[in-house]
Amino acid sequence: MESKRQQKVASLLQQELAAVFQRDLPHLFPGLPPGINLVRVSPDLGIARVYLSLLIASNTASAEQQQTLVEDNVKVIRQALAKRVRQQLRIVPDLVFFVDDSASYAAHMDKVFGDLHIPPAPADNETPGSDTEGSSPKRPKLFADDDE
């Protein structure tokens, strides 16, 4: 579980990294800059794991190209971030970027669930095992030596 300090630093880094990508370094990313879904900070505040959402517009770089752009420019991104948070943090954490594919996974699972064919449940008056009207249905036998 993250401490309050970790949560505050992660929130600050998320906001400032978004500003860095959109305002300070838009020339590094053709098309749409990467979105920041989540930032997790280590307990010693030395490493920040940044989960990116790579939004792809038509006629721009692919997700893999955008990921390599981010990984190649980690030093520049960290320096731009340091200029923004120098008053709040003494040491800027090392940035490790990961691609967050949870949106594509959710879309895939939605498609899988949409393709399932589930037959409708039988109506109440058609319950199997009820031969007589008005009597309660038999309980299923759970064990071989279960006597009633």
UniProtKB/TrEMBL annotation:
Residues 117-148 are annotated as: Disordered. Its main location: cytoplasm. It is found in: Cytoplasm. Keywords: Cytoplasm, Ribosome biogenesis. It comes from the Bacteria. One of several proteins that assist in the late maturation steps of the functional core of the 30S ribosomal subunit. Associates with free 30S ribosomal subunits (but not with 30S subunits that are part of 70S ribosomes or polysomes). Required for efficient processing of 16S rRNA. May interact with the 5'-terminal helix region of 16S rRNA. Monomer. Binds 30S ribosomal subunits, but not 50S ribosomal subunits or 70S ribosomes. This is Ribosome-binding factor A. It comes from Hymenobacter sublimis.
